[in-house]
Design goal:
single chain, binds zinc ion, globular, Helicase, Ruva Protein, domain 3, alpha/beta, CRAL/TRIO_N_dom, 44% helix, 258 residues, 5 strands, 12 helices, Phosphatidylinositol Transfer Protein Sec14p
Length: 258
Amino acid sequence: MLKEKNEFKEEEHNDYLLLRFLRARDFNLTKTYEMFSNCEKWRESIKIKDLCKNFEFPEEEEVHKLYPRFYHKVDKYGRPIYIEQLGPLDLKKLFNVTTEEKMINHHLAQTELEHIETSCTIMDLKKVGLFQFAKAFSFIKSSSAIAQDYYPEMLGQMFIINAPMLFTSTWKLITPLLDPVTVKKIKILGGKYESEIFKVIDKENFPKFLGGTCECPECTGGCSRTDPGPWKEEQYTKDVSWPPKYCLNDEPKAVLPS
Ligand SMILES: [Zn+2]
């Protein structure tokens, strides 16, 4: 269909990508096409290729301290585990070192560079204060809207842990704005989250500070900076078709630190 309309781009579009859009729209071709072309328009409007090529994020280190987000091993289905900790997040401080736009762009550039089909996301709300929470919520909302509309079916599952009561009630208010398929993949858990988590993640793959048994060596930065996982193994990094060519500069500096 895309080929018929002359909208197929050899270097960007592949079966996996198109399949994700199809699945997100229950294989209804008209709806899939609508969603896909909206996404293409959006990618055009934000100039995604230039963004990938030229985006620099020197504040990475500072941002990580304020807002730890990292990949850590895989779950029982082989999906990379992505952990976000909102506790240390002080938005005022965060937006002193960076901007919301740059945060979102960084996330986009990362998503474009990483060849990840689906992931298992853990969002830790431990120690998130009331005031923080309201501000953080809008950030979560805008990033989840982007994920849902333009990177469909990439979220395998999401666990929100240490969620305060307030979160559960606010969540109920925003769920109508989200795709029901997305909502179904998100589990809100309070402080006793371990048993639910260990249904999908082996203890040894979960950081000790969150209740698992993994202790990555401190010298490489501990669980949150080591980036352990099968993607570090050579057999998976030989794939030359990734990252897509448009993400690479002549100089390898376009490769973002994770
Ligand atoms: Zn670890």
